[in-house]
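Technical note accompanying the year-one report. For the benefit of new consortium partners, we illustrate the data format agreed upon in the data management plan: each record pairs a sequence with a C-alpha cell string. No post-processing was applied to the example shown here.
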Amino acid sequence: MNEINKRFGDKIYQEAFCVFSILIICSIIIGIFHFDVFILSDSAWLAITEINLLRHGLLSLRTLFVHGVPYLYGYYIINYAILHIIPHSALSIMHILNLINGLFSACNIALIYLLLRNISFSKFLSFFLALLYFFIPMIFQLSLFANPNTFSLFFFLLSNFFFVSYLNTNRPINLAFSSLFLLLSVFNRIDTIIYYSSFIALAVLLKKSVTKSLRALILNAVFSLAIVLVVQKLLLGYSDENNLLYCAVSFYKECSVKFFMVFMLKTLCAVGFGLIGICIILLIYEKHHKNIRLLYATALWLTPVFLHYFIFPQLAPRHIIISFIWFIILIGVSLRRLSKKMQVFLLLLIYVIHFGSMGIPYQLVKKYYPLKRHYKNNERIVIADFPLGNIFVSSYFLREENRRVWQTAKKVVINFDKVIILGDNTYRMPYYFFLYAIYDINMDYLKNATSHWKAKGKEFIFIDVLPKSDMAIIREFLRDSKYSNFSIHFPPFIPERAPALYKDIEQICTSTNRVIIK
C-alpha cells in the first residue's frame, strides 16, 4: 500500500510540476511581450463596459450597448466579480483586464496539457504540444490583451477535459462538470455552441461509444442554449438587436465569396502556414495508413469552422481559436506511436518549421491581400491585422505605437477643452475610453463620419478622415466661425492611405490660423 501511495504521489507531483512550469513559462513570455494598451477597438469597449457595470451595477446590462454583441455578459460578469477584489481606478481597468486575460491565457495552455494527458499522451509530448499551441500566432496575440475568446476557450477546455474523463470512467459527476463548464463557455461566446461536435470527435478518437456521446452532446446543447436565452431575456430584455437568431440572420445576409476568401486567408495566417502544412502532411500520412478513425474525428472537429462562417460570415480568426486545438491533437496522435528519440527530433523539426515559416504569410498577405489597395505601403495595418511576420517583433512594434496613441489621447482629453479630432476608428477609441473613464461622457460607438459630444466643460468633435470621406463636411467644420476656438488634433500616425486629405486639411488650418496638435 505504501508503494502504491508513493507511486501515486510521485505521479501527482510530476503532473503538478509540468503544469506549474507551463504557467511560469507562459506568464513570463506574456509579461515580456504584453501590450500596455488595447490594440483592438472591441477591447476598448470591453473596458468601457466594465466601468459602466462598476458604476451602475449588473442590471445596467439591460440598457447598455455592448458593442453590437449582446451575448458576452458571461465575460463581463466574471471580470466584474474579479474587479471587486482587485484595487483599481477607472483609468487602471484596461491594464487589470489585460492582466486577468494573461493569467487565463496561461491557464489555457496548462489545460491543453491536462487534456492531452487525459487522451493518454505522454508527459513529454503533452508538455511540448501545449507550448506549441501557445505559439500559434493568433493564440499568442490573444494572450496579450483583454478579449472574451480567452475566457470562452478556458471553460471549453475544462468541459472537454471532464468529458474525456466521463468517457474513460463513466462517472456521471464528470458529465455534470462538463455540462457546467460548457454552459460557462457559451456565456462568454454564444458561438461556442457550434463546436459541441468536438465531443463526438473525441469519442471517435478514443474508440468510445458514439451513441452515448451523442446523447450527452444533444442534452448539453439544449441545456446550454435554453439557459443562455433565459438569462439573456432577464438581463437584456427582448428586442431584435438582442435576439440571437436575428443577429445570425442579419450577419448571414452579408455573406459573400470575396469575404470568405479574406476569412480563409486570415485563418491560414492566424494558425501559421507551417503548422497547417504539417497537419496536411500528417493527414495524408494517416490516410495512407488507413487510420480512418482519425480522419472522421478531424472532419467532425473542423467542419464547424465552415458552419461558423456561414452563420456568422463577419467572424474574425480569433473567434474560431477552438478549432486550433485539433491541430495539436492531430500532431500528438501521429507522434505518440514513435520512439522518444524520434518524438524529440520531430518536435524540434515542427518547432523550427512553425517559427521559420512566420515570414511567409506576412509577405503573402502584403502582396495578395484582397484589400491591399486600401493599405498600400502601410506596414502598420498589415502587421496589426496579421501579426505573423515575426510575432515578437510585431508585438513590440504595436506596443510602442499604441502606447504613443493612448498617451497622446490621455494628454488631449485632460489638457484641452475644445478639440476637433481627426482620424479613423482606431484613433478614436482611446478618446472614447478616457472621456468615459475620467468624465463619464457616454458615447455612441455607431456614430461615425462626424460625432459631436459636449459635457462637463469638454467639447470634442470627432471627424473620420478616410479616402471616402466627404471633404466638404470637413471644410465646413474647419471654416465655421463657431469652431474657431477649437484646436485641431491630427492622429499621431498619419495613415499613408490618406496623405492628400491630411495635407489639404493642414492647408485649411494654416489659412484660418488654427492650432494644430500633432
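Partners are asked to follow this layout when depositing records. The two ends are 74 Å apart (CA to CA).
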